[in-house]
């Protein structure tokens, strides 16, 4: 029987896993890997680490906006004793962006971050709501930074859902934008609380699907966005006009998870995974791929010559091509929450900028969460 990592190790694994996914995936976000399933290219890149880390003047792999924003989320939770305080988080996002704007932020989110820095802003959710003509962004920026929220969820799924949504709404008010953050947070939370000997990938996915279906995507008219309401009004008109026409389902994450469950049985090639679950900067076309990378890589993958499931997860996620830093970062957070810090090679940690800060933040969050548990 394999011993499950301790909870502290899982906290560390989660935040450091997110950083290494971001740093190792980032160079490929620009160049691509040459199509989904190009395992050799990613493997060759990682194999050079041994040489580079010992060589003179070896440079670190830089983190991008994914890590910059996740650090803000962690810092805000630490400063507020594990509670999500939207105003405080908004200020940290804005300050971080102003201090280091060149971290590869999404093209449109920049407008929101600048407005969040306005001292007179009374509603911190307002700038995000005006994105994309009032529809809000469905980019994966809410999901890519949400892992620390999941660490503070304790054993309350509702709290994870609520806080993931609030943290995302500061920049992503589109239903698919914030629900992507919810699914990613639920995946991290579930990985964190699944013991190694009880892991069953199909059950893990089914459980996520049930939670999304029952607690998240069932709410077709929640407080969401003006656009949600507009869309629904349009939909009603459309439905009454063309009664027999098939209306598209708006439970996109449930659809992705249904495909994911099927893929765990059929094991399709990487091209199919990328085309069905997605590899783009949209949340609904990337979060499912991150979850799948973690679950698929619990077992060996043909053509990917690496023994450790944690390392395999990162390499597989990058090999899906497209938004490589973000998919690998999200997959790394989930995998790290399950496999623990011991599963992340020390040379990766040394080489990836920001691993040390992630480690410290994980420890602070762990202390806050365990202390509040013993006090109750
Ligand atoms: O979501 P966001 O923070 O970007 C995150 C991504 C990650 O891959 C990072 O690594 C970084 O590279 O960027 O930033 P947004 O600007 O809100 O969304 C990202 C992109 O998604 C936008 O620039 C658009 O191209 C696209 N997008 C949309 N396009 C059309 N209509 C998001 N929402 C919409 C939309 O409603
Ligand atoms: Mg990035
Ligand atoms: Mg990205």
From TrEMBL:
<dbReference type="GO" id="GO:0046872">
    <property type="term" value="F:metal ion binding"/>
</dbReference>
<feature type="binding site">
    <location>
        <position position="323"/>
    </location>
    <ligand>
        <name>Mg(2+)</name>
    </ligand>
</feature>
<comment type="similarity">
    <text>Belongs to the ADP-ribosylglycohydrolase family.</text>
</comment>
<keyword id="KW-0496">Mitochondrion</keyword>
<dbReference type="GO" id="GO:0004649">
    <property type="term" value="F:poly(ADP-ribose) glycohydrolase activity"/>
</dbReference>
<dbReference type="GO" id="GO:0006281">
    <property type="term" value="P:DNA repair"/>
</dbReference>
<feature type="binding site">
    <location>
        <position position="325"/>
    </location>
    <ligand>
        <name>Mg(2+)</name>
    </ligand>
</feature>
<dbReference type="InterPro" id="IPR005502">
    <property type="entry name" value="Ribosyl_crysJ1"/>
</dbReference>
<keyword id="KW-0539">Nucleus</keyword>
<dbReference type="GO" id="GO:0140290">
    <property type="term" value="P:peptidyl-serine ADP-deribosylation"/>
</dbReference>
<dbReference type="InterPro" id="IPR036705">
    <property type="entry name" value="Ribosyl_crysJ1_sf"/>
</dbReference>
<dbReference type="GO" id="GO:0005634">
    <property type="term" value="C:nucleus"/>
</dbReference>
<feature type="binding site">
    <location>
        <position position="326"/>
    </location>
    <ligand>
        <name>Mg(2+)</name>
    </ligand>
</feature>
<keyword id="KW-0460">Magnesium</keyword>
<keyword id="KW-0227">DNA damage</keyword>
<dbReference type="GO" id="GO:0005694">
    <property type="term" value="C:chromosome"/>
</dbReference>
<dbReference type="GO" id="GO:0005759">
    <property type="term" value="C:mitochondrial matrix"/>
</dbReference>
<feature type="binding site">
    <location>
        <position position="64"/>
    </location>
    <ligand>
        <name>Mg(2+)</name>
    </ligand>
</feature>
<keyword id="KW-0234">DNA repair</keyword>
<keyword id="KW-0378">Hydrolase</keyword>
<dbReference type="Pfam" id="PF03747">
    <property type="entry name" value="ADP_ribosyl_GH"/>
</dbReference>
<feature type="binding site">
    <location>
        <position position="65"/>
    </location>
    <ligand>
        <name>Mg(2+)</name>
    </ligand>
</feature>
<comment type="subunit">
    <text>Monomer.</text>
</comment>
<dbReference type="InterPro" id="IPR050792">
    <property type="entry name" value="ADP-ribosylglycohydrolase"/>
</dbReference>
<feature type="binding site">
    <location>
        <position position="66"/>
    </location>
    <ligand>
        <name>Mg(2+)</name>
    </ligand>
</feature>
<keyword id="KW-0963">Cytoplasm</keyword>
<keyword id="KW-0479">Metal-binding</keyword>
<keyword id="KW-0158">Chromosome</keyword>
<protein>
    <recommendedName>
        <fullName>ADP-ribosylhydrolase ARH3</fullName>
        <ecNumber>3.2.1.143</ecNumber>
    </recommendedName>
</protein>
């Amino acid at each position: 029987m394999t011993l499950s990592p301790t909870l502290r190790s899982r906290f560390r694994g989660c935040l450091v896993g997110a950083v290494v996914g971001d740093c190792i995936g980032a160079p490929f976000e620009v160049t691509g890997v040459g199509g989904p399933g190009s395992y050799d290219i990613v493997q060759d890149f990682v194999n050079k680490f041994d040489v580079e880390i010992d060589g003179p003047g070896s440079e670190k792999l830089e983190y991008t906006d994914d890590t910059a924003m996740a650090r803000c989320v962690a810092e805000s939770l630490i400063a507020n004793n594990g509670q999500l305080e939207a105003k405080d988080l908004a200020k940290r996002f804005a300050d971080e962006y102003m201090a280091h704007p060149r971290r590869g932020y999404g093209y449109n989110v920049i407008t929101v971050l600048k407005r969040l820095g306005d001292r007179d802003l009374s509603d911190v959710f307002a700038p995000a709501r005006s994105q994309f003509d009032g529809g809000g962004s469905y980019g994966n920026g809410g999901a890519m930074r949400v892992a620390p929220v999941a660490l503070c969820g304790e054993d309350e799924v509702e709290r994870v859902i609520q806080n993931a949504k609030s943290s995302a709404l500061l920049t992503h008010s589109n239903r698919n934008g914030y629900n992507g953050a919810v699914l990613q947070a639920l995946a991290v939370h579930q990985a964190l609380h699944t013991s190694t000997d009880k892991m069953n990938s199909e059950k893990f996915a089914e459980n996520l699907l049930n939670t999304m279906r029952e607690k998240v995507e069932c709410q077709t008219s929640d407080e969401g966005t003006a656009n949600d309401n507009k869309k629904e009004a349009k939909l009603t008109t459309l439905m009454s006009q063309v009664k027999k026409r098939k209306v598209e389902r708006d439970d996109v994450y449930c659809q992705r998870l249904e495909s994911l469950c099927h893929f765990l049985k059929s094991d399709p090639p990487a091209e199919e995974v990328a085309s069905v679950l997605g590899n783009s900067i949209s949340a609904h076309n990337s979060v499912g791929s991150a979850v799948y990378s973690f679950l698929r890589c619990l077992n060996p993958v043909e053509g990917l010559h690496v023994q450790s499931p944690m390392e395999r997860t990162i390499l597989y996620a990058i090999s899906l091509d497209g938004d490589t830093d973000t998919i690998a970062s999200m997959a790394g957070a989930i995998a790290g929450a399950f496999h623990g810090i011991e599963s992340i090679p020390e040379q990766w940690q040394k080489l990836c900028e920001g691993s040390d800060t992630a480690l410290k933040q994980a420890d602070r969050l762990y202390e806050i969460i365990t202390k509040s548990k013993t006090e109750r």
